[in-house]
Design a protein that fits this description.
This protein has a single domain, classed as NIF3 (NGG1p interacting factor 3)-like (Udp-n-acetylmuramoylalanyl-d-glutamate--2,6- Diaminopimelate Ligase, Chain: A, domain 1), CATH 3.40.1390.30. It has a four-stranded mixed β-sheet. The protein has four helices and four strands, in the order H-E-E-H-E-H-E-H. Helices cover about 35% and strands about 15% of the residues. Helix 3 links the parallel strand 3 and strand 4. By secondary structure, it is α/β, with parallel strands linked by helices.
Length: about 100
Amino acid sequence: MQLAELFAGIEGIARPGTAASWDRSGLQVASFRDEVTRLAVCLDPTPDSVRRALGAGADCILSHHPLSLAPDLPRRLDAYHEVLRLLLGADVPLYAAHTTLDVNA
């Protein structure tokens, strides 16, 4: 499946315009990948959940919670930056559907 098709399908259910003003739903980490064959889903994009997804062969990750509500420069090494390192190193995109999905519940 094309990555753009997958994101369009997610956004058909979790519409970007319904996000809370403080939320960061949507694409969290970009990649050069066009095709997706294995999608992993998680609640939180923690280093452990991302490692497990990558270990299972995921080439795209959908999380409920965003990676961060306030992205930060890499001035310290923490879980946020470890997730970035893992995803960018594997060229795997991360997409979050947080409040955009909550409004459908």
